[in-house]
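User: My advisor, Dr. K., asked me to get a structural model of this assembly before our group meeting. I'm new to this, so sorry if the format is off. These are the inputs:
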Amino acid sequence: MIALIRFQLAGYLRSMRFLPSLIVTLLLVMLVFSQWPTGPDPVKLATGTYGDAAAFMVPLSAWTTRSLLDTQPTVQRWLSLLAVRRSALAGLFAAFIASSALSLLLFAAPFLQALTVGVPAQTTVAAVLLAALASAAGSFIGAWTSRAIIPGSGTSLLVLLSALTATLLLGLGRLSFLGIPYLDWIKAAHDGPSKLQAALPSVLLHLVLWCGVVATGYLVTLHRRGTPT
Amino acid sequence: MLRNVSLALQPGDIVELTGPNGAGKSTLLRLLAGLHRPRGGAITERPTSVGYAPERFPTDQPFTVTAYLAHMSALHGLPSDAPARWTHLLNVEHLLGTPLPELSKGSAQKVGLIQALLPTPELLLLDEPFSGLDATTLALLPELLATLAAEGATIVLSDHQRVLHQPEAITHLPAIRRLHLSDTALTEITPTPAPTLAAARTSTSSTAATQPPVTAAMPAPTAAGKPPPSTLNAPAPPKPATPSSEPVGNPSGRAQTITPSLEPAGNTPGRTQTATPSLEPAGNTPGQPEAIRPTPTPAGCAPHPPQANTPSPEPAGNTLGRAEATTPTPTLAGSAPHPPQANTPSRELVGDAADTSQATAPSPRQAAPPASVLAEATAAPEANGPTPSLADASPPPQANGLPRLADGPAPPLADAPVLTGDSTTAVTVVPSISEPSPTGWSEPFGTQSDASAERTEPPPEGARIPTGGHQPFAVGDVNPIQGLSTPAEGAMPSTQSVEVSEGWTVLEVIVRADEADDVERGLRAAGRTVRRVSRP
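Assistant: The format is fine. Below is the predicted structure of the whole assembly, which you can bring to the meeting.
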């Protein structure tokens, strides 16, 4: 499986398909740096930036995952599948690695701000957990829209955008448990370190359950597909 | 797409899937590989190690050949140098630094084959593996498949090019199972004799269209098929079956097919007979080889072992004395890496041929070649070399067609598959090397002049194929004007002589009824013009 992860990452890097995600990440980093926390409560602002960065990580990871999983042509995925039976899992791991790398880059800016203004370490740890789960959630969305599930690239792109929008909008109503709790953690982060830490358990639990369901559905769907695409 | 398919594969099986486009051959291969899941039924006891070569290798990947194969090796838990022996065997070493998207179709096909062979699969599935391959690799693959099967691998492949129907391939794969997929059903074709492919030179003119097929009693292609030693340190593949002379698909009794003989031939190691000089093989004793030319040995392959000629059913002297012995067949020489070794038809075939022959007049070529001639023909001329003939006079090419058969010695033959039949109606499929081959399928074993030239010894001067009588047939270049003719044609009365425009050859191909569609499809795919005639 490690060999397949390396194979997929190598293909992703050599194909330059990472460039769109990298460019977007760099733009976000520049945006964060351009709004350095100042004013009466810079700690609160820096904590809020943590929440904003985590929210951006969802679409960023989704796009990265979709790009990575679609790097290999369909027939090559068949060949990889014959060599490594758990190739779907390997693909997810490769996607996590790529998404994590970009998320780390994106997370560097708010982390520097937090260090500068003195955000508590516990808040930073909570933000790291939040960012990791947000990145994972985005990866699963991207995996669902990869060619293995949706063969048409145009269709999959529409589904990706729709899914991201839906996970955001679902958090506004009664079906919030179906969506990703962006709004919950953003609001908590902008309310300050204490609020974020207080809200974090429920947010993390929500994210873990959500990721578990989505990931299981993805793997089961791949396994049950009669004709891999 | 597939219904009621029941199939049991055993280790060592080599299974050829045939069927029209869209019949589901690729689907079945993917089902066997486990890439597709059957909606109903099950595929059980699939080996853990499965190699799959797709019909179109995915070259749209950002790797060089080396990097790609190294990654694929790693996927199989093999060291990065594991592909080395395969790249050497398939002659891909010069492409190792080439990016995959820049590979030609054939080169990409080779990479696809290598990745499939990497894990030493217990189940090897090849989807049109011969597509786009060069002649050397085409000649190598049947031998390679036989070796893998001998090691215990189960091999299933589809083959639209019908490479495995070539006598040279049958020599290596005598026990191949043939499955036909059509109308959602899978049927196993029982083993049949070697394909009878016959052709006669006829005319493109309307007059020629009314001519009966050239009738010549052809020696049965009793291909002695002892495979060469394994290049993979594997035991030799099983020997082909014994000769059979039962007619197949021959309601009129005018065409018969012969199972390639497994009688060991006694040729020089590394050499292959390319001519079938006598129906009554007078010279089929070891040391009296027929026209022989070196066998192009694929890269990485060991030289072929000595092969003994098929024991003659009669003493040579008797054969020589038989006036009714059928003429030697000047099958095309110099092309097949593993052509039939000895063409020793059964005596019954001789009788059949005589009974049904339309060439009632004794033909000069219906005399067995003298032993001295046979002994002389120890080597065929180089494919592109001189074309010596038994007769001093060579036929001058005519301006607008082939030389009249009755007017002079027949032109030389060269570099085409040795596909001979024993039929009286019929004769040889002779894809002229002068014809373009749009897809290349028609010359899988035929036009290997390059390979032969690289790997064969220069032929001794004066090498000739005994043809008997005044019809000399030598091995050498095919002249598009001189074209291709057979002794049978030479035996035709002058009134049956025909002329064919330069660059054109009319072939008559006689195949089994159940193979007709495939053959026709293949010919059309190769850009040939096909006219189908059903005979009672």
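One thing worth pointing out at the meeting: Chain A touches chain B through 25 residues (CB under 8 Å).

User: Perfect, thanks a lot.
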